[in-house]
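help with this.
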Amino acid sequence: MTWFMVALVLVVAAAGLLRWRRPAWYWLTFGVTLAMARVLVRYGSVMDACGLTVPPSRWRLTLARVTNRPVPESRPPRILRLRPTRTGLVLRLKLRPGQDAFDIAAASDRLRHSFTMYGVTSRELRSGVVELRMTGYDVLKRVQMPAKTDTAPMRVPVALREDGAVHYRDYRAIPHALTLGATESGKSVYQRNLVAGLAPMDVALVGIDCKQGVELFPLARRFSALADNPDTAAELLDALVTHMESVYQLIRAEQRITADVPDADIAADIWDLPADLRPTPIVVLVDEVAELALFANKEEEKRRDRIITALARLAQLGRASGIYLEICGQRFGSELGKGITMLRAQLTGRTAHRVNDESSANMAFGDISPDAVLAAIQIPADMRGVAIAGDSTGGWHRIRAPHTSLRQAVNTCNRHADRTPDLPALAPFRPALRSLKPVDAPAVESIPASA
């Protein structure tokens, strides 16, 4: 009995230590078993307390009356499946007649408390079937991406959602996106994860970094074109528009619209072309869009109109030609001048990190979801990298990208530098790379500071 008590105390102490220091390990060793037991034991009473049960049907009442049996109790949604995951549980429910998926969503917070879980989110899979994703710990506190992800061409895993699922940046589903965030909010880390995920793919990267290239030029070995000032950016965007027009000419020449060709085989974008004729897709990353829209004199105003017009044309027409926009900035409002709101309307994907005011959050989600605006302004300052991701459908998620240092991103780009395509239209903007040779640096003398 003494040894049993000692072993029990050691197990409880180990569980407490794991829950404090390594919540993911605690969940996989102890938490998942305890959580499944809680859900199965408390399920009926919790659903009844949350008002998620339906009274017995008339035929059941009639049958009970005829057979002189007790009145049947109210019935909760039927459990179709309870599946453990590396971050929580997935509970799939079949709704009873008269129930609605909104009832489950409205009771998510009460279910979280009742089942002693960290978070509960719901989504409707099909008519009458709702899936509850329950997380056992704060997965955004220390982001650990799964070893295996569902990658595909132009589909990059960039972050982890608060329900434990992987957040993907799918360019073929959402061609253009906007990323907002204040200084030190995590935009740069999100962008590094994006570049590191695109580096192993057959894609051309084009960067516009008007902060003298301090963010994107370290990754230059994987970029087909780079611009570090607004003048070069204007010329680069004009070259992209010209390249887009040439790709459309290629699609028209290869559309295959003869009568014997099925409708599904008619080419309307580059992905309908044969692999040997398909142009390389291009992802354009703009680090700070405000630097392209601000001006101080008439000449800079003309250059600004030229840049915004080119960006708007790429946003409207670039998807079919395989040109995708990834625009970042601290603000993206109408104060940046004409054409900005038209450009923003074309950016379907929206991601907002911590912002300094509510109006900045409205720039990202005001025309999509008021709830996303409220969630964006509630991101704490000490949680760098936490963001709200949404799209034009009104759905949104809280996400956080894993921390990727600039050195890690540079190493990834250098490792896949041989995949950098050489596009003739963008050849003048190809970054000049110096050969890495060891050089004996001269001794640096200390210079006294002037008074």
Remarks:
- Confidence is low (pLDDT under 50) at residues 436-451.
- The first strand starts at residue 78 and ends at 84.
- The radius of gyration is 27 Å.
- DSSP finds 13 helices and 14 strands in the chain.
